[in-house]
Request: fold
Amino acid sequence: MKICRTFLFFLFAVLLSGSLSAQVITNFDLTIFKPLPEVDLGSLSMANDLSGAPRVFQISILPANIDVVLEGEITWTDLGQTSSKKLFDFKTRVFKSTTFYNTDLGSTAIRIARTNSDNNVINDLVKRGKPVGRFDINLTLKTPLGAVIRTATDFVEFVNPTQSFTILDPQPGADLQPGNIVVSWIQVPGASKYKIKVNTRTSNNQSLETALASGSPLIDFDQIPNSKTSVKLSELPNKRPILEAQELVVQVIAVIPLPTGEKELFSDIVNFNVAGLNDARDNAIKNDLMSITQSLPGGLGNTLISLLSDKNLRITRLLDEKGNPISEDQLKNLLNYLNANPDRVVNAQFIR
Reply:
């Protein structure tokens, strides 16, 4: 009878111990640092001695110094898919509750007791070069005897494996007026601010990257609040003035705070042209001239069409047949008359 009482007392003490452990843990949180601009697959693994890996997530178990065991798994869902695949599952040895990072696993008193992985799924991911898709971390906190205390989950997504983002405006090769150049881009989640750089491109043989890095930039990484995703260049302090007929290149940089510092995410580089103030006038005159070329004798019409189609052609002076200056309105009236009466064109000459 005494042995039975002793056994019952021992069983009661074990159950009470597990119950108390479950009650005293008041906080169990998992936080993945988002976004993660650059990590490799090893940074998402669970193994001993990850001290050389970047900090990817934090686990907080409070109050401290309570004996606990942590179990969990990491699953992966590919882009465009709805079902997930398990990458890893793991279980730690008993350790004292605390707040720690993934880099503390195996480098402190927190040791991994066992881990399993699906090599087929891992190999598929390794071939991608960088993590792509959604990664879910699901954790279960237990007492040393296996009673569940709390659970915690979090996830991170990698949508763009090239780790860049897109400038929406200007479009490549666009012609923009000097005082109305607007740069806009897609919002980058987690960015604390943006920076912008603008430089000139001196020839078609110069790469966009070389043009951006060369010489003295017009705008050199001016900072823009994260609440904005567009800016007019004329509102920024320029190092050098933006001139007519220049070709410019622009890049936006998103600055993302991480536990170990800041990460810069670079947009693609876009080139565009600065139009002259008289471009609208010039284009109107050239369009009017081209509309009457079909009635010109010989092959002169085709020659004029080719000449007037050149966007770099500038109209610097308006003269009559005697070399006297005429106004834009006088020329417009003449062109309108010739468009309405093409038979009145008796001769035309093209002088280089």
